[in-house]
Amino acid sequence: MARDAEHDRQRDRRAEQATAREGSRPRVGDRDDDVVFELRDVSVRLGQVEALSGVDLVVRSGERVAIIGPSGAGKTTLISLLNGTTTATRGEVRALGCPYARASARNIRATQRRIGTIHQRFDVVAQLRTVHNVNAGRLGTWPFWKAALSLVLPRDVPRVREALAQVGIRDKLHERTGDLSGGEQQRVAIARVLVQQPDAILADEPVASLDPTRGLEIMKLLLDISAESETALLASLHDVDMALDKFERVVGLRDGRIVFDKRRENLHDDEVRALYTIDQAPGSP
């Protein structure tokens, strides 16, 4: 019995030490309905290149997070990791509670339907009318017959019209998408996300192809949608000033590693400058 008591004491001490190491940081596997995305010690190797290395990140419901960093930092890889189109080499990735590495293909697809992703390239079919491109946001939830029929006879037109009204191009419902301007095509992509009714929005350089004025309009639109629906928004941006001006939390990525993750008011100018300085990462002597 004495040996059992000593064993229990040692076990308790180990548990206390583990708790001290972890602190208040959420752990993979903990139930937290507020967590939308969770990465723990995640690395991604693409061929001979380690695109991400040892990344830890938690994004909660309603947060608006900007990812900044130089070209090749791993921003696009991070976005594709979160929406399940890239697989982690090491570590654990959870999206809306789904552990990608251990989930079934069906559960992964169900999770992806709950995540709206907006790309720099707009990802619209130029030959189709706007109503068809917007309805593409519903394809994952429709049976095959309905999806196929929608290419001939548009479905749920009132809902599409409402989404287009939200993004300011209600009158473009039946126009050929390829005839729209770049800013209007990006609005179509956002309307597609709106009809999807996602629980989280990922945006990979969503304004990089637009002029500054149109870029600000699109970013304000995304932020307003996130705020009104209390939906998490995580956007990778090349425009540092926009990230610092519009987002409440900024993550700096360089060489596949997170070098800072701070609220805007706690981020110093020298940290941002160092992020983009050649041969010098933040914290280097």
TrEMBL record:
Pfam families named in the record: ABC_tran (PF00005)
Biased composition annotated in UniProt, kind: Basic and acidic residues: 1-16
Cited Gene3D superfamilies: P-loop containing nucleotide triphosphate hydrolases (3.40.50.300)
Positions of the ABC transporter domain: 37-280
Top-level lineage group: Bacteria
Keywords annotated in UniProt: ATP-binding, Cell membrane, Membrane, Nucleotide-binding, Translocase, Transport
UniProt keyword annotation of ATP-binding present: yes
A molecular function GO annotation: ATP binding
PANTHER family in alphabetical order: AMINO ACID IMPORT ATP-BINDING PROTEIN (PTHR43166), PHOSPHONATES IMPORT ATP-BINDING PROTEIN PHNC (PTHR43166:SF6)
UniProt protein name: ATP-binding cassette domain-containing protein
Organism: Haloechinothrix aidingensis
